[in-house]
Design goal:
Elements: H1 2-7, E1 14-18, H2 26-37, E2 41-45, E3 58-60, H3 76-87, E4 90-96, H4 102-108, E5 112-116, E6 130-136, E7 143-148, E8 151-156
Parallel strand pairs: 1-2, 3-4, 5-7
Antiparallel strand pairs: 4-6, 5-6, 7-8
Length: about 170
């Protein structure tokens, strides 16, 4: 994805990876090596130590919960969502279904451009309920595009306070 964004003209790319994976793992080593050769900054996501700078776009699959023993909160994804939208006008993240509940959805409602409820097909064997939420600070659309296993449809932003994980009709 980072290479496609570079080819499309995005220049301010940073790959934010799950810092809880441990810096010595093969996966983290491969990510750091790839980013270095492509001149893409890489940063470990740590909800206590987040880089504060503007990005062209933030796209990702953040950790949903903290793996730290004795953590006061397991809700890491909401911190990442908030950080992402403070630092970019365009955000698209794989998030747990709770992101579509009124308590979170209402905070971002005027910027939501898309919700993909059919994202689970890309993660076979994962038991969680999740979605892709796309935000655009510059949207002029009155509609949110919702995708589910039956296809895509529009819902009116003005009359939508949340998106149900079983959402199946438009307008």
């Amino acid at each position: 994805l980072c290479l496609h964004l570079k080819e499309a003209g995005f220049t301010n790319l940073t790959y934010v990876y799950n810092g809880q994976a441990g810096s010595g793992t093969r996966w983290v080593h491969n990510i750091k090596g790839f980013c270095s050769t492509q001149k893409i900054q890489s940063v470990a996501f740590d909800s206590k130590n987040l880089p504060m700078k503007k990005f062209d776009a933030v796209i990702g699959n953040p950790p949903f919960q903290s793996l730290e023993h004795g953590s006061k909160t397991n809700n890491v994804w909401s911190k990442f969502l908030s950080w992402s939208f403070k630092n970019s006008d365009y955000v698209s993240l794989v998030l747990p279904g709770a992101a579509l509940a009124p308590s979170t959805f209402s905070k971002y409602k005027e910027f939501v451009t898309g919700v993909d409820l059919d994202v689970k097909k890309h993660f076979p064997g994962v038991g969680s309920t999740f979605c892709t939420l796309t935000l655009d600070r510059n949207t002029k659309s009155r509609f949110i595009i919702v995708n589910n296993s039956d296809g895509s449809f529009k819902v009116r932003r003005s009359t939508t306070d949340f998106i149900s994980l079983s959402h199946s009709k438009g307008l």
